[in-house]
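re the bet — no i am not wrong, look at it urself. input seq straight from the record:
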Amino acid sequence: MGLRAAHEALAGKIAVVVGGCAGHIGRGVTLGLAREGVHVVACDNDREGLASIGAEVEQAGSTVSAHYADVADESSLDAFWDEVAKQTDRVDILIHVAGLVERHLFAETTRTLHARDIRMNYDYIVQSCLRGLPLLRASGRGASIVNFTTIEAHRGAASYAVYAGAKAATTNFTRALAVELGADMIRVNCLASDTTPARASNAALAPEDFARLAELGSDALAKSIEFYVPQKRPPSVEEVVDGVLFLVSDLSRAITGQTIHVDGGTSASLGFLDWPEGDGFMPAPLGGTLKRMFG
């Protein structure tokens, strides 16, 4: 199937996007689907985003039914799925974008924070998949689920321990569910991003981290990305959305149970940074950088 045919095949499909009305990535996913002619049922806990997403989707050439839901609350998410079932007799695409990340040393966390991280990054996805499964099976023609995970699911992310564990659970849940639903032609995949515009807005760094960066000037964070991301820049929202569109289109019709890393190469480097002062790619700085730091 060619690229044009694969994208034309998306037109008229029905997608549910959990966390699809606000934030750079969630809103971008909803608008990206709309531009392909997909009809979207979305939920979010951001009321400003809910109020404005409709007009943007109409401009993109499709329709959206936007609902308030807080995925941290089981009853709120159930109420959203009750509404989905009232509106449509099938779902072709289910995307879970909602999530939460904060930086904490594990010794400084609490059981309340643990429960929140697990709920927001794993448990709600399990609940939503279970609620959505009858509608995903309804057409008999297959469907696609995309769960957002992260590079932190694949490495020892110190100061993000419970978050990373929850995202790893989502990743392996995705694999297992893909095997179970393979005969139904319901594909289940993950999209793992890394440094994207959503990370800062989700408080991935503590306030004191942002304060230190601010003291160094506006170019400091961009310069650090050049060390960290092999492509020397983070993926844009549009590039993350392109990854989603690939996974829900027929271009990936034989791909299931996989994690697609849209990260500019950071998952491939796995700790090899491009150090300055001539040191190049190494897991730790060499003489040039060390001399600059301590000389």
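see?? The mean pLDDT is 92. told u. also Residues 111-138 form the longest helix (28 residues). so pay up
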